[in-house]
Design a protein that fits this description.
There is one protein chain. By secondary structure, the chain is mainly α. The chain has 17 helices and 2 strands. A two-stranded antiparallel sheet has the order 1-2. The chain is elongated and about 130 Å long.
C-alpha cells in the first residue's frame, strides 16, 4: 500500500517505526525503492523523443481514427507535391484539378468536392496548423465519445463547412480547401460534451476548455490572414455544436461510447438531409454561373471545331461521308453553347459585352456549319460568297474575344 502515498511521507513513517522498535519487513530494500522514487526522472534521449513523436501517427485503442485522418491528410499532401503542386503556395487551378471546393463545378454535378476538399490544403503552413489542431482535439475527444461518433462527426462537420462556404461566397467564385471545417466541428462537439455532461468535475473541464480555447485562438489568429475560408470554420463549428448536443441528449447527458446503430443512422440521415436541402438552396447565379458557362462553351467549341479541322486537313480531297457527321456534331455543340450563353442574364460587371460577343460568335458558327452541311450534302461548292462573308464576321468576333483589334484581321 505504500505506493499510494508520497515517498517522503512513507520514509518518515519508517523512521518513526524504527525509533519505536516496531519490526518492518525488508526495511532497507523498501527505503532504497522509496529513495529511487524521489530521484528526478532522467531526461529522455533524442531517440526516445523521436519514438514518442512517431506514436502520434500510430492508431491505438482510444486514439484510432485521429491518426488515420492525420496520415490520410499527410499522404494527400505528399501526393499533390509529387504531382507538381507547390508545397508552400499552391496554384488555385491545380487545387481545383485535385478536388477543391469550387462553386462552378461543385454546384453542377461534382458534389463530391464537398468531401475531397477536406483533405487538400493551401500549403505546408496551412496543413501544419490543421494537423496540430486535429491531434490536439483527437487525443481528448475520441477517447470520450469513441471511434464511431468521432468519425461520423468529423465527416458531417467537414461537409457542413464546405456547404456553408459555398453558400456564403455565392454568387462569387472561390476555391476552398482544408480540414478546418471538420476540426472546428470537433471543437464545437467537445464544447457541448463538456457543458452538458453530468459526471466530470469542473476542475477537469476547465483544464480541457483552457487548452481548447488556446488552440482555437491560434487557428482564429491564422484565419485573420487574407484568403482564409472563415465561413467553413463557422459552418463546421455550428455543426459540431449541434452534433455534440444531440449526442449527449441521446445518452442522458452521460459520457459513453455505447450508442446504438439505429440512433447513429438516424442522426447521420438527419444531418445529411439538412445539408442536402441547404446545398440545393445555394443560388447558381452571378459569377458562379458565368464561369461555368464560359468553361462549358469552351469545351463545346473544341468539340465543334473537329469538323473544321478535318476539312482543313483534307482540303479538296475530303469525303462527305466522314465530314457530314462531324458537321452535325458541331451544329449540336453550337446549339448547346447558344442555350448556355442565353441563360447568363447576370454576368459580372464588365463581362456583359463578352457574353454578347460570344453569343454572336456562336450563332454565326452554327449558321456556317448548317450551310456547310447543306452544301456538302447537295454537292455544291463550299466557299461561296455567303460562306466567305460568314467566315469574315466570325473572324471579327473571334478577334474581339481574344482581345485583338478586328481591323488587323482584314
Amino acid at each position: 500500500m505504500h505506493t499510494q502515498y508520497e515517498p517522503q511521507a512513507v520514509l518518515a513513517v519508517l523512521a518513526e517505526l524504527e525509533r519505536r522498535g516496531v519490526p518492518v519487513a525488508q526495511p532497507e530494500q523498501l527505503k532504497q525503492e522509496l529513495l529511487q522514487a524521489q530521484e528526478p526522472p532522467q531526461p529522455e534521449t533524442l531517440a526516445q523523443k523521436g519514438r514518442g513523436f512517431l506514436q502520434v501517427f500510430v492508431p491505438k485503442p482510444h486514439y484510432f481514427v485521429t491518426p488515420i485522418l492525420l496520415n490520410l491528410n499527410l499522404l494527400v499532401f505528399v501526393a499533390g507535391a509529387l504531382l507538381g503542386v507547390h508545397v508552400l503556395d499552391p496554384d488555385a487551378a491545380r487545387l481545383v484539378e485535385l478536388g477543391a471546393n469550387f462553386g462552378p463545378y461543385t454546384l453542377t454535378g461534382e458534389w463530391w468536392r464537398l468531401l475531397t476538399s477536406m483533405f487538400l490544403h493551401g500549403g505546408l503552413v496551412h496543413l501544419l496548423f490543421n494537423m496540430v489542431a486535429l491531434v490536439n482535439i483527437g487525443t481528448q475527444l475520441e477517447a470520450l465519445v469513441g471511434r464511431v461518433q468521432f468519425v461520423l462527426a468529423y465527416v458531417l462537420c467537414g461537409l457542413a463547412g464546405s456547404v456553408v462556404s459555398l453558400w456564403w461566397t455565392s454568387p462569387e467564385v472561390s476555391v476552398s480547401v482544408g480540414a478546418s471545417g471538420a476540426i472546428f466541428g470537433m471543437f464545437g462537439m467537445l464544447l457541448m460534451v463538456l457543458l452538458l455532461e453530468r459526471e466530470l468535475d469542473w476542475k477537469s473541464k476547465r483544464a480541457i476548455l483552457g487548452n481548447m480555447v488556446f488552440v482555437i485562438g491560434i487557428n482564429l489568429a491564422y484565419g485573420m490572414r487574407g484568403g482564409i475560408d472563415n465561413a467553413a470554420h463557422i459552418g463546421g463549428l455550428l455543426a459540431g455544436v449541434v452534433f455534440g448536443s444531440v449526442l449527449l441528449l441521446r445518452s442522458g447527458r452521460y459520457i459513453t461510447q455505447a450508442y446504438g446503430a439505429v440512433g447513429n443512422a438516424i442522426t447521420v440521415a438527419a444531418g445529411a438531409l439538412v445539408l442536402l436541402v441547404w446545398f440545393l438552396q445555394i443560388p447558381f447565379t452571378g459569377t458562379v454561373r458565368y464561369v461555368y458557362v464560359m468553361e462549358e462553351v469552351g469545351e463545346l467549341e473544341r468539340s465543334a471545331l473537329e469538323a473544321a479541322l478535318a476539312l482543313d486537313a483534307a482540303g479538296d480531297t475530303y469525303k462527305p461521308e466522314e465530314v457530314l457527321p462531324l458537321l452535325e456534331q458541331g451544329v449540336r455543340a453550337w446549339e448547346a453553347s447558344e442555350v448556355l450563353l442565353e441563360s447568363v442574364d447576370d454576368a459580372p460587371a464588365g463581362e456583359e459585352k463578352r457574353v454578347a460577343t460570344m453569343l454572336d460568335y456562336v450563332r454565326l458558327r452554327k449558321l456556317s456549319y448548317q450551310l456547310l452541311h447543306d452544301d456538302m450534302a447537295a454537292g455544291r461548292p463550299l466557299m461561296h460568297p455567303k460562306q466567305q462573308q460568314m467566315m469574315s464576321a466570325i473572324s471579327h468576333f473571334a478577334a474581339q474575344l481574344q482581345g485583338r483589334d478586328p481591323r488587323e484581321e482584314r
